[in-house]
Amino acid sequence: MTVSVIEQAKIQAQVLVPLVKALQAELGELRANALVRKALGDLYRRFGEEFWKAKNESDLGKAVSAAFRTYARDDALAYDVIEQTQDAFAFDVKRCAYAEFYKALGEPELGFLLVCTADFATAEGFGPDIRLTRTQTIMQGATHCDFRYRRTREAG
Fold this sequence. Notes:
The protein is an alpha+beta fold and about 160 residues long. It is about 55% helix and about 20% strand. It contains 6 helices and 4 strands; from the N terminus they run H-H-H-E-E-H-H-H-E-E. It has helices spanning about 5-25, 30-55, 60-70, 95-105, 110-115, 120-125; strands spanning about 75-85, 90-95, 130-135, 145-150. A 4-stranded antiparallel sheet has the order 1-2-4-3. A hairpin with a 2-residue loop joins strand 1 and strand 2 (about 90-95). Helix 2 packs parallel to helix 6 (about 120-125) and helix 4 runs antiparallel to helix 5 (about 110-115). The model has no long low-confidence stretch (mean pLDDT about 95).
């Protein structure tokens, strides 16, 4: 049995939270966070590229829906689909176990850095014609996260 993404995030936090805090103390928060965003961004962009190639699905709604079912496994996310089409997948996350976990640690800002910022890098890996917009997150205190994936032009 594979380990769910929420369990992976909890395991990774045992190493990443102290590491990021040490980097922040040594380099300053701004510089350390930029370094972490770049390193993790490169990693998650590759994950997005690999997922997109493996999925081999031209229907954006189907592909992104499948990806988020993976992130939602083990009751990690509760979300409402707003729109699912060939060129769009829009949904609102109403409950987020990732945010609950980092808030319980007293580190929601690190949760945003280590979890939420990965969403944009992963979306970049889906291809140059896919855009993610999100204006708020539960991790940062909002009532919900508003994910909007759109194809910006015809692929090809």
